[in-house]
Amino acid sequence: MRPVTLETVFSHPVTQKYLRRSGIAHAVAVAEYAYIFAKRYDIDPDLATKAALLHDVGHYTWYRDGKWDFDLYKENDIHAIKGAERAHKLLIRVGENRHAAKEIAVAILLHTDSYLPSGELELRPLQKVVALADEADEEKDGNHHYKQIDDTVALERVRAIDRLIDQSEEALRTNVNMM
Ligand SMILES: [Fe+2]
Fold first, then answer.
1. According to the model, what pLDDT value does residue 173 have?
2. Where in this chain does the record put each HD domain (predicted)?
3. Is pTM, for the whole model, over 0.85?
4. On the CB side of 176, how many CA atoms lie within 13 Å of its CA?
C-alpha cells in the first residue's frame, strides 16, 4: 500500500489553494498524461503522477491592470523553484516517504527550463516524464491554465488514476509471487 494516495495530495487545502491559481483542469490532465508516459517508459507512476499533479503549485499570479502579464511573468517567474519547495513541504506533512518526496520535488524543479541559463539539461527519466506530460497539455498563450473543470469531476479523475496505480502495483506483486 502506498503511504499517500494522489487523492490525499489533491484534496489537501494547500494543494487546492495553489492549484486554483494555475488551473486544476491542467494539473489533473498532466497527472493523467504522466501516468501514460510513466507506463511507457517504465517509471514509477506513483512518483510521476504526484509530481505532475503538483508541478505548478509554485505559481504566483502576474496581473497588471486585471490581465495576466506574460512579460512580467517571463522576467520574474520562479514557479518551478517555489513549487518544488511547496510540494516537498506538503508531501512530508501528509506522510510521504522522504526519498519519494525528494524525487518528486526535483522533478518539479526541472519540469521547465524557462528560468534556467541556456544549455542542455540531461533529465533523468522521471523528470523527463513530468516535463513531457506538462508539454502534452500545453496550449497557446498559456490557455491550459484557464481550462475549467467541475470539482467532482476533477476528484473522480484523480481517484481513477489512484485505482490504476493500485492495480499496477497489485499486478506487480502477483507477478513477483508467481516467480
Ligand atoms: Fe504546467
1. 83
2. 23-139
3. yes
4. 6
Q: How far apart are CA 33 and CA 36, in angstroms?
A: 5
Ligand 1 centroid to residue 174 C-alpha, Å: 35
For ligand 1, an ion, list residues with CB under 5 A: 56, 134
Could you please state the CATH topology (level 3) that the domain comprising 6-178 is classified under: Hypothetical protein af1432 (1.10.3210)
> What is the rounded distance in angstroms from the CA atom of residue 48 to the CA atom of residue 51?
5
Nearest Cα neighbor of 49 from 98, 93, 2 is 2
Ligand 1 midpoint to CA 172 (Å): 30
- 45-54 vs 98-109: helix axis angle to the nearest 10? 50
Residue with cell 518544488: 84
Q: What pLDDT shows up at residue 11?
A: 98
DSSP 8-state code for residue 178: H
24-57: pLDDT as tens digits:
999 999 999 999 999 999 999 999 999 999 999 9
**Strands 67-68 vs 63-64: parallel, antiparallel or unpaired:** antiparallel
